[in-house]
Amino acid sequence: MALNIAQKLRLTSVVLGTASRKDLAAAFRAVNPKTAFDIGRADKWLQGRAQPREHSVYEDWAKVLRLERPGAWIAESDLPSFTAAIAARHGIDAAELERRAHAQAEASSGHDDKGTGLALAGTYACYSRAWSPYYRGQLIRGRLSIEAGPGAHAFTATFRETLPTGQLQLGGPVTPAKRSLYLHLKEVGGEAQFFLCLFPQTQPVSVLGGYMIGPAIIGPEAQPSLTRILLVRLRDAPAAEQWGGYLPPGTSIAADLASLGIVMEHPEAVDRQLGQFLSADSDGGVNQIPPSEYRAILDVFDRHWLQHAG
Fold first, then answer.
1. What is the Cα–Cα distance from 1 to 15, expressed in whole angstroms?
2. Closest Cα to residue 71, out of 82, 60, 86, 81?
3. What is this structure's pTM?
4. C-alpha span between 133 and 219 (Å, rounded)
5. Strands (E), the chain
6. What 8-state DSSP symbol labels residue 283?
7. Pick from 109, 83, 289: which is nearest to 199 by CA?
8. From CA 71, how far away is CA 58, in angstroms rounded?
9. What are the residues whose beta carbons fall under 8 Å from the beta carbon of 40, sequence distance 6 or more?
10. Cis? peptide before 204, omega within 30° of 0
11. Residue 221 host element (H or E)
12. If DSSP codes are grouped into helix, strand and coil, which group holds residue 289?
């Protein structure tokens, strides 16, 4: 019989220094790429509503903690024994370990905890399809900077594109919500407005994706426009302010990211995946992104971010 699974997982998370379920799952994948530990079921395990049924999960768990004990011991041990064992193995005071685990449980009670929210802050390379009829079929790259405000969930964004007509800059609030991440951006010194509706952010916030709506800036007539957009988080912000704009036809997004310090493995596969995502048409007149399609991209960039952490 498995005992105290939720508490044991929190203690494990503290020992590993993982900030989210995704990070914890990555730790299990590191010891077994085919592990049965997954994020969806981990939510239930951490809430005490279910427990792992596959024996292999407990065997992977023992490897994650580097314990010289069988997986069955992790499942069946009482909480004090489990705490003492991992505290001794990793050189952490047992009382301090319990305190941190308790604090983590309180902090993770909300959907968008403070840690996940603060991880939004940074600089992103933004890729979308050009709205201008003069650049039809080409990609345009923008630069988005998100800064944290005084509150735990207060953020502002600045978006820039370098156009043939000059520098376009918009700014406005960023609003994390349960079902989406919203950005309402207004042109500095102008009247253009962009609205971004993105998938909710998840740790480690390596990439964001969704839709951007607004007017075509360069064109002979007014054209309300909609495009898919991907925002790839950069580890280091480029120094040049004149940055981004229409990309030449056939530009490799993977190569462009490499020039910004994000060197992806299998760049050809990344280009195919991102190209298909950005070029997808509406389904029956309704523009919606299948979660599985975005999740596949998230998985690629999250793995890359975690592999190069630190």
1. 24
2. 60
3. 0.65
4. 6
5. 122-129, 139-148, 155-163, 166-176, 181-187, 193-198, 207-215, 224-234, 245-246
6. B
7. 289
8. 4
9. none
10. yes
11. none
12. coil
Backbone φ and ψ for 132, nearest 5 degrees, come out as -65, 135
CA–CA distance, 242 with 169 (Å, rounded to integer): 11
Query: Measured between alpha carbons, how far is residue 212 from residues 133, 134, 147, 154 in Å?
Result: 17, 19, 20, 21
Give CA–CA dist 131/213, Å, rounded.
10
Reading the block at residue 185, the tokens are: 């951006």
CA distances from 18 to 26, 92, 234, 236, 248 (A): 9, 16, 21, 22, 40
Q: How far is CA 20 from CA 138, 201, 207, in A?
A: 37, 12, 16
Which pair of tokens denotes residue 287? 């523009």
φ and ψ of 149, to 5 deg: -95, -165
> In degrees rounded to 5, what are phi and psi of residue 225?
-135, 155
CA distance readout (Å), 45 to 18, 42, 191, 284:
16, 5, 49, 39
CA distance 141 to 163: 10
> What secondary structure does DSSP assign to 264-305, as a single string?
-SSHHHHHHHHHHHHH---BTTB----HHHHHHHHHHHHHHH
* Radius of gyration (C-alpha) of the chain in whole angstroms: 22
Angstrom CA distances, 301 to 32, 42, 43, 47, 233, stand at: 19, 21, 22, 27, 9
Tens digit of each residue's pLDDT, the chain (310 residues): 688 898 999 999 888 887 678 889 999 999 999 999 988 788 788 877 788 989 999 999 999 999 999 999 999 999 999 999 999 999 988 888 888 887 766 555 544 444 556 678 899 999 999 999 999 999 999 999 999 876 555 789 999 999 999 999 999 999 998 889 999 999 999 999 999 999 999 888 999 999 999 999 999 999 999 999 999 999 877 665 556 799 999 999 999 999 999 999 999 999 999 999 999 877 778 899 999 899 999 999 998 988 887 5
Q: Which two tokens stand for residue 9?
A: 């997982």
Among the listed residues 77, 73, 88, 148, the one whose alpha carbon sits nearest the alpha carbon of residue 117: 148
